[in-house]
Specification:
By secondary structure, this protein is mainly alpha-helical. The protein has 2 domains: 64 residues, no CATH class; 60 residues, no CATH class. Helices cover 51% and strands 12% of the residues. Strands 1-2-3 form a 3-stranded antiparallel beta sheet. A hairpin with a 5-residue loop joins strand 1 and strand 2.
């Protein structure tokens, strides 16, 4: 997609907006503009209120610190759409993060269940542990209690 208008100041461009403001209007983001600095750095800014009076317009940086990057419509379109939380690109990134967290959680749960099965196998081999559980309660099943009463050679052989 090419821009409808080339960068420039048009009659509908607010007086303090940059010449690239027309690109942001075409992309559907009239609250964004491009700010250029004297040293060649540029950034995309978001205007909080409508650009009517320059001194009273509040704004913040959305993408800043761009040096040695040519200002082009394609570059601006790519980053503006990536930064917009209403677009699919943002939600795709967030869903990917959520999937990673869910996978980690499921893996941890699987490891816990596997450890519990192996601990149950150890307990079932030793009648004296079963008796202690019957006598002292379920706390005897905790790993540090089990480790106190089972020879290390047997724990090692089951858990490695």
């Amino acid at each position: 997609m090419l821009p409808y208008r080339t960068p420039g100041i048009y009659p509908d461009t607010p007086s303090f907006c940059s010449e690239y403001y027309t690109w942001f209007q075409e992309l559907g983001y009239p609250q964004l503009d491009l700010l250029r600095f004297e040293d060649g750095e540029w950034s995309i800014i978001e205007l909080y209120n409508s650009p009517v009076i320059a001194a009273q317009t509040q704004w913040k940086h959305v993408l800043s610190g761009m040096r040695n990057v040519e200002i082009s419509f394609g570059f601006i379109r790519k980053y503006v759409e990536l930064l917009d939380i209403t677009k699919e690109a943002y939600w795709d990134m967030e869903l990917a993060k959520s999937r990673k967290v869910i996978a980690k959680t499921k893996e941890a749960e699987r490891r816990r269940a596997d450890l519990a099965k192996r601990a149950a196998a150890i307990i079932s081999k030793h009648d004296h542990i079963k008796e202690r559980v019957a006598k002292n309660g379920i706390r005897e099943v905790l790993p540090w209690h089990i480790a106190k009463h089972i020879p290390a050679r047997e724990i090692k052989s089951n858990f490695i």
